Amino acid sequence: MRDALPHYAVWHFSCHGSANFADPLHSGLALANTDVLTLRDILALRLSGVRLAVLSACETGLPGTDLPDEVVSLPAGLLQAGVAGVVASLWSVSDFSTMLLLTRFHDFWRIEGLAINQALRRAQQWVRDTTNREKLVYFQDIIGGARASVVSPEGARSLYGELDDYDEPDRRSFAHPYHWAAFSYVGV
Predict the structure, then answer these.
(1) Contact criterion met (CB below 8 Å) for 80 and 47
(2) What does DSSP assign to residue 185?
(3) pLDDT score for 137
(4) What is the rounded distance in angstroms from the CA atom of residue 60 to the CA atom of residue 18?
(5) Read out DSSP for 86-113?
(6) Residue 173: helix, strand or coil by DSSP?
(7) Radius of gyration of the chain measured on its C-alpha atoms
(8) Quick one: how far is CA 160 from the chain centroid?
């Protein structure tokens, strides 16, 4: 798998991540079969053709603590290896609100053509400001539209359940910064 990474311009890791504060080179992303892609592994790669790495996992943007005047983290390592930009999280994130955020991010970036930093900002505002009903309508359009093939029937039922479980459809259940503020963008 590591050999294939340099051949893709955009990465989106949706997995578990961990920050190792004492030894940041052991910070990493959990892959299949208990494999871990560590910062040490990343630094050994040459990734000059990679435009963006989205690290949709917990604590992927946290630096180590041994060298407070130097940033040793997954995003810094990816930039050092040649990736142009990285989206990463600063704390443990909710799977559901992360899905909401990053779906909108990709739509703003890839479909609407916004710059990566602006797409992330707009996605964060959307998660924060839209009502449960507005989110459900948006995702119903995705599920019923041309992109329906990317959402399984089980995923659709889960989405409807998550948004329908809230007492009031006009409520903004994801307005708290926990749901949208963890992710930041570094790069060009």
Answers:
(1) no
(2) E
(3) 85
(4) 6
(5) EEEESS---HHHHHHHHHHHHIIIIIS-
(6) coil
(7) 17
(8) 21
pTM of the model: 0.84
SS3 172: coil
* Nearest Cα to Cα of residue 128 among 177, 75, 83: 177
Q: What is the mean pLDDT of each run of 10 residues along the chain (188 residues)?
A: 86 88 86 90 90 91 64 85 94 92 96 97 97 87 54 53 63 94 94
Exposure of 90 by Cβ count < 10 A (0-12 exposed, 13-18 middle, 19+ buried)? middle
Report DSSP state, residue 37: E
State which amino acid sits at residue 94. S
Where do the domains of the chain lie? 5-92, 95-179
Q: What is the pLDDT of residue 150?
A: 47
Q: Residue 168 corresponds to which amino acid?
A: E
Q: What's the rounded Cα separation, in Å, for the pair 19 and 34?
A: 16
**Which pLDDT belongs to residue 149?**
43
Q: In the structure encoding, which two tokens stand for residue 184, read together?
A: 């930041």
Name the token pair of 35.
């494999």
And the tokens for 71? 């940033």
SS3 of residue 14 by DSSP: strand
Which residues are CB-neighbours of 21 under 8 A, at least 6 positions away? 62, 64, 65, 66
- The position carrying tokens 């093939």 is 149
Report the greatest alpha carbon distance in the chain: 50
Answer whether 36's CB lies under 8 Å from 25's CB: no
Q: Residue length, the chain?
A: 188
